[in-house]
Specification:
The complex is a heterodimer of chains A (373) and B (215). With 373 residues, chain A is mostly beta strands. Chain A has one domain: Porin (Beta Barrel), CATH 2.40.160.10. Chain A contains 2 helices and 16 strands. In chain A, strands 1-2-3-4-5-6-7-8-9-10-11-12-13-14-15-16 form a 16-stranded antiparallel β-barrel. Chain A is globular, with a radius of gyration of 20 Å. Chain B is elongated and about 50 Å long. Chain B is α+β, with helices and mostly antiparallel strands and 215 residues long. Chain B contains 2 helices and 12 strands, in the order αβββββαβββββββ. Chain B folds into 2 domains: 43 residues; 166 residues, Lipid/polyisoprenoid-binding, YceI-like (Lipocalin, Beta Barrel). Chain B has an 8-stranded antiparallel barrel with strand order 1-4-5-6-7-8-9-12. Helices cover 25% and strands 47% of the residues of chain B. Classes of the chains: A mainly beta (373), B alpha+beta (215). Chains A and B meet through helix 2 of A and strand 2, strand 3 and helix 2 of B.
Chain lengths: 373, 215
Amino acid sequence: MSRHARQALAAIGLAAAAAAAPAEPIFLSRQYSRCTNCHYSPTGGGLLTPYGRSLSREELSTFGRSPGPKPQGREHEFLFGALGGATGPLSLGIDMRPSRLRFDLGELTTTRNLLMNADVTAALRHGGFTFYGQVGRQPRGDDPRVASFEHWVGYESERGLGARVGRFLPAYGVRLADHTTFTRTPLGLDNEDQVYALELSYRSDRHLVQLSVGPGLADDVGDAERRAFMATGRFQLDLTPRTVLVASGLFKDASALDPSSGATGLALGLAPASRLTLWTEADVRFRGGSSGEHAYAIVGEAAFEAYRGVWLRLTPQLLTAFGDTSAGVVRVSLGVNWLVRTHWNVVLSYYDDRDRLTDDKTKTLLAQLHLYL
Amino acid sequence: MAEAANEPASRAGGRGAAALGTARAAVIAVGVIASAAAIEAAAAASWRVAQGDVRIAVPLRPGGAFEARTTSLAGTLALASAQPVVLSGELTVELATIDTGIALRNRHLRENYLEVSKGPGFDKAVLAEIRLGEANGEGFEGRSGFSGTLRLHGVSRSVTGSAEIRREATGVRVAATFPITLTDFGIEPPQYMGVGVANKLMVKVVFVATREAAR
């Protein structure tokens, strides 16, 4: 196996092995432009609120909808309502993704079964305060790790002013469900790359502003050589309930090992019909010591609900190398998200990556059963 | 004596008859004027609205918004006064046709908040007594403030907003916006599993009114 193939293999394996976030910007077509309608986290993903659970059952799943005019039973609740009301105001969730990954590098084809993640998450909301904590197992290469990857305390006033402190994924761009997207992974904003930070926010009916500052990536905070100040900013303008514009910025200071780096980007979300969502995000990345040598990432995603709960995805992507816009990778991703029944989904994704300089190709097929109990 | 006695009476009677005649003439004149005005009003064309685009911007708590829509707008309006423009007639919206984009939300809206099944007074929103403050005459074009009485959820309340009026080949195109406050109409702002709706909503209405033949 060539060096290039090994590198690609490692990259894909790592990327695919990381936990996928269940945030769903595709639901802009249902006029949900804010993560917090369905998720506790202001940056999306993770534990669903009771509203989000109910919505996933009544509106999004193929077979979960209540038969009568009103929601019936407890199917949408934690463990399908097995505990009744025993948890009180505490929201709980279990998130597991058994997956099968197959990648073809031309000279090498490999198949791998893995448990992408297995998380238990809890949240309590009271008087504007939200207490959030997650413990989970995530594979990092061949070394599974059990830890709390996300834990924070947040407060939001009636007027929309908010603050959050702890470990979380900072706000940047559009958090597409596929965490390997070129506007996420290359920026260091993969699912398990949360930061320790203080986040300040302001939301109104049409605006959302999120600013975060902190000592950097959570896994680097304890490492004096890698620790580096990090700041992010995100501004969202809801032009209409189905049209959203997002501007973002990220800065990571230099550490003893890495130069400073950052990115800025624009994203536009558009839902021209109730079953169609279109997202486009373009980012410019920069790094210290390479003045004028930028890298670019452009991602488009078209998601169409062909049948209730069955979403077809087409995601063309381009990632250039620093200082060479003719280099980089072109990816075409096709996918199907089938939200079969309340809190269990099937996700099939196919990636066709082509190196623009060497013309090397990588084809990856990923099948996931997503259990959100 | 009697004559003498009656003379004043007679003169008085004559003055009374004259006064009566004057009054009668005045009544007739008023009647003629009123009839003329009525005839003129009757002769004035009415404007029919068969369909429109009604959009209600609904802010969500904790953030964002959704749009509720219907095309079920109908009614007939006529010019009752030219300066300022006062319109007789009314515009109605069938509330059961409002679509929020999500079936469950539609059901909640209709059943729990608008209570359309209660029937008359609840099944429709009716806008009447429309006055266009800055408009003058039937041929007005441009932007004007307006006021009207909105009947919704069994409650009638005055509403005010702005309207843009343009002439088109097929009639008059009107684009109007006005805010409504849910609690003014006895509607508690919806709340469902921690997600709520703001009390103040913005209504946008666009329709083309076509001229009906004079009666």
